[in-house]
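Troubleshooting entry. The earlier prediction with zinc ion gave an output that would not parse, so I re-checked the input for stray whitespace and re-submitted. Clean input:
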Amino acid sequence: MTPDTPEDCVFCRIIRGDLPCEKVFENEDFLAFLDLRPVNPGHTLVIPKQHYPDYLSMPPELLCAFAEPVQRVAAAVMDVTESDGWNLLQNNGAAAKQVVFHVHFHVIPRNWADDGLKKSPREELTREETKDLGKRLRAALE
Ligand SMILES: [Zn+2]
């Protein structure tokens, strides 16, 4: 698989506004939005606005700054979804199941009843449910 270029990268297209997303947080350098195929409702992706294919390609200072929005988003996801725990996942390379080659962290709320880290079918959450979740997360992140 060829890593995406900024021109055809799905996340860069979201950042440019060419593709929609349910945004929950944004600052100068980072953007967070709901995953279209959540493992659980509230599964959020946090990405830098600048295109870096993976963790190792990021400048160390930006990588350090990445921790702050990830922590804020995770706190909001836990608060809004009232989950029992959460996973922070970050995949690098196709062999590690990286699908979009624009570095991102997955914040995944988990519950005791979970049956694993499986992606749900796209239609599992209705558009209304996704919008409602986005609204509650944005409010928690204000
Ligand atoms: Zn990109």
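This one parsed fine. The longest helix spans residues 60-81.
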